[in-house]
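chain below, 357 aa
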Amino acid sequence: MKVMKFGGSCLQSRAGLERMIELVRAQPRPLVIVLSALKGITDQLLGLLAQAVEGQSVDLEPLRLRHREVSETLAEERRQRTEALLDERFDELERVLGAVAALEDVPATARDRVLGMGERLSVILAAAHLEQEEIPAQVLVAGEAGILTTAEPGEGRILARSREEVLQRFDPAADLVYVVAGFVGQDPSGRLTTIGRGGSDTTATFLASVLGGPALLWKDTPGLLTGDPRVVGEPKVIERLHYLDALELAHYGLPAIAAKAIHPARRSGISIEIRCFLDESIAPSLIGPNQTSHLAISSVPEVIMVDLVEAGPVASRLDHDGADHLPSPPSRARGRSCAPSRTSSRRSPRPGSRPCS
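prediction:
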């Protein structure tokens, strides 16, 4: 079963919605789509959380209006049903933020509920627009999709037993689009969790690894590039990338995909395709068992390496006025900037194996 993931910018305009519907309609069903929050919503939720922990009252109206704008193109009856579902989520958010304000503290579970709200809102909007176009859709959130995680706040790890849960919840014979909230999961006690940076991509690649894949990640930028465009002039798209090379680039912070999103695909042997949502003519990046097509450059800025050198036994001595003196050992500790690391095909030597000198 194919899994497609759409980033937050895909739903924030009518053109984006039409593009998503066009891509979904072209695929055989059943199909799984995984959604992020609308672009900028997670930052807004962080701001509301910061206000609440200071004991301030929070205003959810701008957040409500932002999501209602996306529902405006729905037919009247469907729009009313959709906004009623959205209001249920906003009422929950208001209660959680009210409790945070009363405590002037943020329990880990409350933080996860607040930060995971963006994805829980976006799936409602996406399903409503798909159904209006006569594409049958079913919303699944966290445990409903079989995404069971550990209980670490903000960094839940998907549990191995999630595989069995996923297989029970996705019917390979259904004429249906499963609309899954990315980034969120459910811990063993039933509480909502979040998966951390790259959580929506990780949700998509994990589901694809269980359901047979592949995973298509639609983003508002080109795929994996030969360098960070903020640092390297005119980088090119890497069309084929081996799992290990992709992990190395992700480890050193090259944008487009987090390292933890690659692991499920590597374990199952499925491919990850990163495509540009705004311009399908741009060649995609394919991560898989294939040989890497291009070298890439990555860097870690503002890093200092420090040598700690053992100075041997040091004896203190007492001078005539009773002051205790510790001789200062010759120190080799010094700051060193970190040079760029270059990755290459896994079949050739890696000149970037020791990036710092």
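DSSP finds ten helices and 14 strands in the chain. The longest helix spans residues 76-103.
thats it, cya
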